Amino acid sequence: MRTAYSVETVRAAERELMARLPEGALMQRAAAGLAAVCTRLLTRRRGRVYGARVVLLAGPGDNGGDALYAGARLARRGAGVTAVPMDPQRLHPGGLAALLAAGGRLAQEVPRRADLVVDGLLGIGGRGGLRPAAAALAGQIPPGVPVVAVDLPSGVDADTGEVAGPAVRADVTVTFGAYKPGLLVDPGASLAGAVHLVDIGLELPPAQTQALQHADVAALLPAPTATSDKYRRGVVGILAGSRQYPGAAVLAVAGALRGGAGAVRYVGPAAEAVLARYPETLIGPGRVQAWVAGPGLGEGRAGEVADLLAQDVPVLVDADGLRGLDPELLRTRSAPTLLTPHAGEAAALLEVPRESVEAGRLSAAAALARRYGATVLLKGSTTLIASGGGPVRVNPTGTAWLATAGSGDVLSGLAGSLLAAGLSGPDAGAVAAYLHGLAARHAAGSAPGTPILAHEVAEALPKAWHEVHSR
Ligand SMILES: NC(=O)C1=CN([C@@H]2O[C@H](COP(=O)(O)OP(=O)(O)OC[C@H]3O[C@@H](n4cnc5c(N)ncnc54)[C@H](O)[C@@H]3O)[C@@H](O)[C@H]2O)[C@@H](O)CC1
Ligand SMILES: Nc1ncnc2c1ncn2[C@@H]1O[C@H](COP(=O)(O)OP(=O)(O)O)[C@@H](O)[C@H]1O
Ligand SMILES: [K+]
């Protein structure tokens, strides 16, 4: 499990540790880790550190200090290191002295030729968008030169991943002590590149943000035992599709059949299309251990969705099922509810513009979970799973090729199947998003660089399932 922590938590852990260590020890640990990553990168690109041209963008705080001390280490190995301060009057004094003593120099402008740029403008002390001096330096980074961000790309909000105005786009981010949520959640995550975590010895409480990894998913996946039968493994009911959108029903059933439930029951007007593709499907109402309600329902079906929500079994509500959902009705349910909106549907539920959901994904997911008393899986470039009180899960798998019609239907069937198999709302949501994203990568991998289709994602689910068990 990867875990991420808020600035407040990181600072508290840092204070506690600093009180037990000699002054400056933590920054030396951070700088050593940063210099090691820079060394690896330079060695890979040009064979050695000696003679490399390294540019440090140095901000006024400790983030700049980390960069300056790391720069000093690289200068001692023969790199030509130039620090460009955001404000020449405010540079970390110890870091500056170390850099100059090691043979580094100061400049006012970013040199045009460089082998590596280190972004030490702002770390967890950054607030709001980059101010003009910082934005100007960020804008001078020569194109094509690899950028290593110190702790996080400057301009990214560490707690939320929000980016107000310009920000640094890094190839690699070296983060200290713990991941910050902004490194896992878009738009920040897309600016961070590959993230390296340097352990500086912080002791941290239970995480507020988590990202599952293969082993976590493998441990949660259902597996039949000697005493299993199809009913004990769980039956998932799918209320989906309409005369206009029969395909959504087929795709939701496709996801559900590969999600670990013992049987899939379909209810709705697309039975013929479903059976033609999946003769395994049971047709018509009956007992289920979880419902999926919504994909391709079209308009005017809210009554059917409400009837399912009145049953005391887990219900996943997606797509058209989300229209006009009553928060009161959901809050009075005792069985779990899982809502799976994309940004547009989340915006409608929250009565805010879509852009504000996309810019503030973490807060939107958490607000929805609170308002509806449900687990919320917010789809998009980084899918988030939020539930009242518990940590927010950030899905690390997927590909932008998933932005294709019908892939959400596969996801809802899959997550519903996991609910029927007995997973909790947050686990079903997180495991489904993880497998769905991996399956999409498998599907995309069969002809790299070309579009994928939603049914191919469903067909690749067994490969994803196998992959999480085999590593
Ligand atoms: N917290 C920890 O556990 C550790 C922190 N370290 C480093 O310390 C950093 C935090 O250092 P600081 O608290 O000094 O904060 P920063 O260095 O992130 O930034 C603080 C300075 O930036 C200015 N500033 C804030 N927002 C700005 C904006 N939008 N545009 C322009 N200027 C802005 C502030 O006025 C302040 O002077 C971390 O990110 C990390 O790099 C490491 O040295 C080691 C351990
Ligand atoms: N830019 C993106 N990068 C990665 N995944 C994405 C992106 N945009 C959408 N997705 C994923 O694609 C799927 C689309 O679902 P959805 O919007 O419900 O489409 P549909 O209703 O057509 O099935 C979701 O799993 C979502 O997380
Ligand atoms: K930075």
Q: What would your notes on this structure say?
A:
The chain is α/β, with parallel strands linked by helices and 471 residues long. It is 41% helix and 15% strand. The chain has 19 helices and 18 strands. The chain has helices at residues 7-18, 25-46, 62-76, 93-101, 132-139, 181-184, 188-192, 214-220, 246-257, 271-277, 302-309, 327-331, 343-350, 354-359, 361-372, 407-420, 425-445, 454-459, 461-470, and strands spanning 2-4, 53-58, 80-85, 105-106, 116-120, 147-150, 172-176, 194-198, 209-211, 235-239, 263-267, 282-283, 290-293, 315-318, 337-340, 375-378, 384-386, 392-394. The strands form 2 sheets. It has an 11-stranded mixed sheet with strand order 1-9-18-17-16-15-14-13-10-11-12, with helices on both faces. Strand 16 (375-378) and strand 17 form a beta hairpin. The longest helix is centred in the first third of the chain and has 22 residues, at 25-46. It is elongated, with a radius of gyration of 25 Å. The two termini are 14 Å apart. Ligand NAX binds at residues 10-11, 14, 26-27, 30, 59-64, 66, 122-131, 134, 150-151, 176-177, 200. Keywords: ATP-binding, Isomerase, Lyase, Metal-binding, Multifunctional enzyme, NAD, NADP, Nucleotide-binding, Potassium. K(+) binds at residues 63, 119, 154. InterPro entries: CARKD (IPR000631), Nnr (IPR030677), Ribokinase-like (IPR029056), YjeF_N_dom (IPR004443), YjeF_N_dom_sf (IPR036652).
